[in-house]
Specification:
Layout lengths: L9 E2 L17 H7 L15 E4 L21 H5 L4 E4 L5 E4 L2 E6 L5 E6 L13 H13 L12 E5 L2 E5 L8 H6 L6 H4 L18 E6 L3 E6 L12 E5 L3 H10 L4 E2 L6 H4 L8 E3 L3 E9 L9 H10 L2 H7 L35 H10 L7 E8 L3 H15 L3 E8 L1 H9 L5 E7 L4 H9 L21 H11 L4 H18 L3 E7 L3 E3 L3 E2 L18 H8 L1 E2 L2
Parallel strand pairs: 2-11, 2-12, 15-16, 15-17
Antiparallel strand pairs: 3-4, 5-6, 6-8, 7-8, 9-10, 10-11, 12-19, 13-19, 14-17, 14-18, 20-21
């Protein structure tokens, strides 16, 4: 197995949200929510001010800051619990030290040594030690449920100021998930805890922020005055539990400083109010696709998957539901033209087309000639663009005789149902990584899935295919770029020809930000981290880069 972009959803990593519903004017929600946040910290306008951040439309927060948990609050890893390395997915192979200062692999890729940073303390004053790092990973070995990314470790031990990881096979590709997606935890506080169920309500980390007040409607984090890199310039961050309508009001009035939100009319709703300061940056972070449940009928049939794909008008979805912010997906699911070299030559110019006649023919072949095909599409109700996309697809599928019911549910319910395979088909985002391998692994690796009824950590469509796993293993077994490229091209062929997932359109990292208080936000000119506040641990990197406007 290997490193990958786990969907934490956050996935992150199970990603809980990057978008919001914009309906009628909100009235009161936001102002009432913020009223309980406390006053601004000292400083003049735009200097050392708290930030108000929108992450998702939960309506309420659960006090869960367990960095091992699938349902942890976004920011748990990064704000409180820091990883060993930071990987900038917007710049391939851009890896910077975090709690580790350096690392080295053995020639066979089965041993990894990492030097742990000195003079770092937990927020309770205790020093970070190599034993804390060993404890963090040993817990994953002892309790497999904590190993969300499926990183296969043989062992972990301390050797002076180094931690030594051993693996049963060549594991160069494990670095990202192992060192970039796991937050280091304090042994002296968590030893003896049942970490697969512990909610960790009062997190003690090494990170740049500490937990301030918490309620179901809003929680705050405060700058750590003893942070090893120095106290962050942002003194406080407030995370209200927004209702969908409140977000629209907050963006229009300037009360929200940073949002992970889909806005139907960016210029009208957001930018025109203050074009000098209201900015956005939407780089691609992966793929939005129909995740079909291949563990049961009807999506265990290739003909059905092909028929559904041929019936969908992706151009219409992108133009109408996504307002042109994204592009229709390439049949491989890979972002184009950035990943063109990873696509087999014969498929580089491939594109999705609508073919209702062919779709009907395939349905008849699958046994749905006289019998109507019916299934349910599960979508998170607050994701307006997903809901609108679903309605458009319902219309498209009706043209070929498919009766698709759209069922909208709350975000938490959606996450739970998809994770346990309690769905026919869902519209879902898959997060990319340093190379296309990670996107494919999180969608297709059989090691990440579970039988229906059990919580999967990836591959929510329950795809199980020997050839797919062999290609993933071939990539993992080598550090040779040409061989890795060949393996990814094989995986692209699987997606194009077998449709284990049905690609629809790109998945942007939604980021709306205001420059009235701080400068230094990620941008096309300075893409130092994924810009969405819904992305961990990148959120912490962004907050550490910000400088007050004088």
């Amino acid at each position: 197995m290997s490193a990958d972009a786990t969907i934490r959803d956050a996935a992150t990593q199970l990603r809980l949200s990057r978008r919001t519903l914009f309906g009628a004017a909100a009235g009161v929600g936001l102002a009432a929510t913020l009223a309980g946040c406390g006053g601004d910290d000292e400083g003049g306008t735009g200097a050392g001010k708290p930030l108000v951040v929108h992450i998702n439309d939960t309506g309420s927060w659960q006090r869960n800051f367990n960095p091992y948990a699938v349902t942890q609050n976004v920011g748990t890893i990064g704000l409180f619990y820091e990883p060993l390395l930071f990987f900038n997915k917007l710049k391939p192979n851009d890896i910077t030290p975090w709690l580790a200062t350096k690392y080295s692999w053995s020639a066979d890729g089965k041993t990894l040594r990492m030097t742990i940073r000195k003079n770092v303390t937990w927020t309770d004053g205790k020093p970070l030690t190599v034993d804390d790092v060993v404890f963090t990973y040993q817990a994953m070995i002892d309790t497999p449920a904590l190993n969300r990314g499926g990183v296969e470790l043989s062992g972990v031990k301390a050797d002076g100021d180094e931690v030594v990881f051993t693996f049963p096979s060549t594991s160069f590709t494990k670095l990202w998930n192992l060192a970039g997606q796991i937050g280091i935890v304090p042994k002296h506080l968590l030893s003896g805890k049942k970490l697969d169920t512990f909610t960790n309500p009062n997190p003690v980390g090494t990170g740049p922020f500490t937990l301030g007040s918490f309620s179901s409607q809003v929680y705050q984090v405060k700058a750590n005055p003893k942070y090893w890199k120095g106290k962050p310039a942002v003194p406080q961050v407030k995370f209200p539990a927004y209702t969908a309508n409140a977000v629209q009001t907050g963006l229009q009035t300037g009360e929200i400083d940073w949002a992970s939100a889909f806005v139907p009319d960016l210029k009208k709703i957001y930018e025109k109010n203050d074009p000098e300061h209201n900015k956005h940056y939407f780089p691609s972070e992966g793929l939005n696709a129909l995740m079909v449940n291949t563990a049961k009928a009807p999506f265990d049939s290739l003909e059905v998957r092909q028929a559904v794909s041929l019936a969908i008008d992706r151009d219409r979805i992108v133009k109408s539901a996504e307002r042109g912010y994204v592009e229709p997906a390439h049949p491989s699911g890979l972002p184009m033209p950035a990943d063109a070299d990873w696509v087999p030559a014969k498929y580089k110019d491939a594109k999705f087309t609508v073919d209702t006649a062919k779709a009907k023919e395939l349905l008849k072949k699958a046994g749905y000639g006289s019998k109507k095909l019916k299934f349910e599409l599960l979508v998170p109700s607050p994701y307006t663009d997903f809901v609108n996309s679903a309605q458009l697809m319902k219309e498209d599928l009706a043209k070929v005789g498919i009766d698709m019911t759209v069922r909208g549910v709350a975000i938490q319910d959606w996450v739970a149902k998809v994770g346990k395979g309690d769905f026919d088909v869902t519209l879902r985002g898959a997060v990319s990584g340093p190379t296309p391998f990670y996107l494919y692994r999180v969608m297709l690796a059989s090691a990440l899935t579970k039988p229906i009824g059990q919580q999967a950590t990836g591959n929510y469509g329950r795809w199980k295919d020997k050839h797919t796993d062999e290609l993933l293993a071939a990539y993992e077994a080598t550090n040779d770029e040409a061989k890795q490229q060949a393996a990814v091209q094989g995986l692209a062929t699987v997606v194009i020809e077998q449709l284990p997932v049905i690609p629809l359109f790109g998945s942007p990292s939604w980021s709306l930000y205001r420059t009235t208080k701080y400068t230094g936000w990620p941008s096309e000119q300075n893409p130092y981290a994924m810009p969405s506040p819904a992305t961990s641990p990148d959120m912490a990197q962004v907050l550490l880069h910000l400088k007050p406007v004088k």
